[in-house]
Design goal:
alpha+beta; three-stranded antiparallel sheet; Phage_tail_APC; Phage tail assembly chaperone protein
Length: 126
């Protein structure tokens, strides 16, 4: 069986058919390939070897979903503090407001600045 791949190394077809003019790697273990694909891993040729890497798009989706959950939690915290202050006739102190704003901005920045396999989540300020 052959694994045909593009210039970036990403495999686009497993087949025993001849596809003239295309780069390929001879492979033997079909069961390992099937298992890896079923786990959502992406086949890539690196240094002449077939390897399976995590699907970056799927990892980023999971990161964005977690980030949204944390933002919703922070928004609920802001609403609760504002309601408590309104009921008490006071204001939320500046340090608390600033800490929440910094935390929420750090969460919003995660998708643009983070490797999805090594996310460092900001600490909750409460």
């Amino acid at each position: 069986m052959r694994a045909y791949y593009n210039d970036s190394g990403y495999v686009f077809r497993f087949t025993s058919a001849d596809m003239p003019g295309l780069e390929y790697l001879e492979i033997s273990d079909g069961q390992a390939i099937a298992t890896s694909l079923n786990l959502g891993l992406v086949p890539v040729v690196r240094n002449g070897q077939l390897v399976f890497e995590a699907n970056r798009a799927a990892l980023m989706k999971a990161v964005r979903e977690r980030r949204c959950e944390l933002l919703q939690e922070a928004d609920a915290r802001v609403c609760m503090l504002n309601d408590q202050a309104l009921i008490a006739g006071t204001m939320v102190d500046q340090d608390t407001r600033q800490a929440l704003a910094v935390y929420r901005q750090a969460l919003r920045d995660i998708p643009e600045t983070t490797d999805p396999s090594a996310v460092v989540w900001p600490q909750r300020p409460w």
